[in-house]
Write a structure and sequence with these properties.
This protein is α/β, with parallel strands linked by helices. The protein has 14 helices and 13 strands. 42% of the residues are buried. It binds guanosine-5'-triphosphate and magnesium ion.
Amino acid sequence: MGPDDIAGTSSPVAARETIFALSSGPGRAGVAVVRLSGAGAGAALIALTGDMPPPRQATLARVCDPVDGGIIDQGLILWFPAPGSFTGEDVAEFHLHGGRAVLASALSALGRMPGLRPAEPGEFTRRAFDNGKLDLSEAEGLADLIDAETEAQRRQAINQLGGALGRLTEGWRARLVAALAHLEATIDFADEDLAPDAAPSAIVDAVRHNILCLIGEITQYIDESRRGERLRTGLTVAIVGAPNVGKSSLLNALARRDVAIVSDVAGTTRDVIEVRLDLEGYPVTLADTAGLHGGTPAVDRHAAVEAEGMRRARAQAAAADLTVAVFDIRQLHQPDPDTLALVDTDTVVVFNKLDLTAGEGPDHLGGRPAVSVSAKTGAGMATLETALAREAAERLSVSGESPLFTRARHRQALVECAAALERALEAPMAELAAEDLRLSLRALGRIAGRVDVEEVLDVIFREFCIGK
Ligand SMILES: Nc1nc2c(ncn2[C@@H]2O[C@H](COP(=O)(O)OP(=O)(O)OP(=O)(O)O)[C@@H](O)[C@H]2O)c(=O)[nH]1
Ligand SMILES: [Mg+2]
C-alpha cells in the first residue's frame, strides 16, 4: 500500500431515491423554494409543469397537480442537470409563493409521485459530500454559516466553507506523505549503495526535521482550536456582585430589553437568567446571577433558596469565560469582599449607579479594566460594551483572523496526529516510524472526511435543518 492509498474517499452512491424539501424557511413568505435532488427530479418537473426548462435558467411556469391538473401556483422553475448541481445529482427548484396552503399543496403533490420522498435533515448536503462536491470541513462550514448569528461567526463559517481548513490540512498531508515516502525508501534501499547525501541516515535526519516542524505547526493550531470552538458556541459571560448593585439592570441595558426583573428589594434575582447577545460581532451568552452576600443568612424560609441562588451564582462565575464584577460606585471606599474575591484575569469590573455620584471611579481594579456606568441612564454603557467586545475578541479570534478549527472533532484529530508524529520520532526502527506516520495521516484525513467517514457523518449532518 502506497501512502496515497491510505485515504479512501467514499464513492458516489448510485440510484438513490429522489428527495424533496422546502429549502427556504418555514412560515409565510414572499417566495419559498422547494428543492428536489435525484434521478427523478426531471420527471417531477415535467409532471408538475409540463415543461423542461433549459438548464440553469429561471423560467416562469404554471405548477399543476399531476393527478387532477388543478393549478397549484405560478412561479419560477430551475433545472440543474447532474453533475453541475449542489448535490451533484439532477436538481430541480420550484420558486413558489410562500403561502402555507401553496406549499402544503405542492409538497403533497410531490409526495404522491412514485420514487420521491421528503428529505431528511442535511440530506442534500450529505449527497453533495458523497458526490465529492464538498469535503467534510466545508460541509461543517455550510452548517455554521446557516447557524451564524454574528459577524465573527459568519466570517469564520464562510472561510471554512471556502475550504481554508481543507487546504491547510491538505498541505500538512502532502508533507507527511512525502516524509513517509522518503522513510519507506530508506527501508527498501538500506542495503544498496547510495550517494552520500541520499544515504539512509541523511534521509532520516531530513524526515525527522520535517516531522518536528509539522509537530510545531499542528500544536499551535491545537492551542488555538479552543477559540474556534468558543466562536461557534459563543463566549459565556457571568454578571456577579452584591445584592442590589444593579446586576439585573445591567443585563437589561446590555440586552436592550427587560429580560430580568429589577427591584429595590435586595435578593430579587434568585436563579441564573441568560440572554444571547451580539457584541460588536462576537457571540456572547450573558448570565445574570443572584447577589452575593457574606455571613450566614438568617434562618427563615428564604434562607435555603438564597443560599442555593448564591451557590449557582458562584458556579456560573467559575464556569464562565468572562465575569463582569459589579460594584456600587458609592461604596468604592469599601468594595464588597465577596465580589472582590471573584476578580481574576478573566474579569471586567463595573462601577454602577454613576448617576448617584459626582465622578467616575478608577479605570482599574485588582489589575483589571474598570468602567463606571449607570445602568439607569445609560451613561458609560458604550464604553463597557467596547471593553467587553475587546475581551471577547481576545478570547475568540487569533490576532484578528478567524480561527480555523472550530470543533472538538477537529481538535481530537489534530491531537492524535501530533501524538503519532511524536511516537514516530521516538520509534526505534524506520518500519515502526513509518507505521506511526501512517496513523498520523489517518488522523489528519479525518478532518476533511477522507477516512473513517461513516462514524462521523451521521453526527455532522444531523446538525443541518431539513432542506439543506
Ligand atoms: N440610580 C440608579 N439606580 C440603579 C441603577 N442600576 C440599578 N438601579 C436600581 O437598583 C436597584 C437594584 O437593581 P437590580 O438590577 O435589581 O439589582 P441586582 O444587582 O440585580 O439585585 P439582586 O438581584 O437583588 O441581587 C433597583 O431599584 C434599580 O432600579 C443605576 O445605574 N442608577
Ligand atoms: Mg438581580
